[in-house]
Design goal:
This protein is of the alpha/beta class and 266 residues long. 23% of the residues lie in helices and 25% in strands. The chain has two domains: 129 residues, Dihydrofolate Reductase, subunit A (3-Layer(aba) Sandwich); 107 residues, no CATH class. It is built from six helices and twelve strands. A hairpin with a 5-residue loop joins β11 and β12.
Amino acid sequence: METVRPFKLAECRDQACLDYAEAVKRRRNPPRVICHIMSSVDGRLLNARWSEPFGGTSATAFFEIYASIGRELGTDAWMFGKNTLRAVFPEKFEADGDGIAADAPSVFIGERRSARLFVIADPEGDIRYTSSTLRGDNMLVILGRNVKQGYLAHLRQMRISYVIVPDAANLRQGLETVGCAFGIRSVSVQGGGILNGALLAGGLMDELSLVVYPGIDGLSGVPSIFEYTGGKTTAPAEGQSLRLLSASQREYGVMWLRYSVHRKKQ
């Protein structure tokens, strides 16, 4: 059943809302985040540039291995960046009209039939969806307070769940909210270097699941596993260390390396 739930910590008026607000206060930590990514042996991400595998194995076989490992992670949800999702839903939603009211409900629960949820942060609120699922999983959209009423109506019509946070570009805010509102305890992030870099710099990455393709790119400047824009003194990984959890060989020479991330106590 579709429901809209109030989510205003400062202005709860009934017991259900008070209970919900108290749950949010108790759970300020975001879900466990696993960055799951496949790269060449030199850490590059543009698969069209990778050298051909030994034996002429098809590219499809390698991505099937990557997807299979992703399922083995057993997370409650998975997500990737907005630019990647644009390849699936390329049409832009032109949302004219009024913004949302100050007391507008901030959680909408749409169709939920899949075991996992696909989560997408959309700061602009402008992806036009033609389906409520992605690869069989129901979707959950993280939006900011800048979203238009017309866009929320589009999501409700498509039975797509959403949460509204002060700033959808703030990954911590979004992950904390979906963790509380939808019971998500773990997320597999299958994005690119920019999203991974933002999670790393924000201290939000708990684990790295690195699938290594047996090939090379070799060119300087090609997007890599972590891409964070900053000055020469910027250190997005500062205070964080990797501990190897496991290393295993898969079909066709693929290696799967799994690390936990440990952060120094402040």
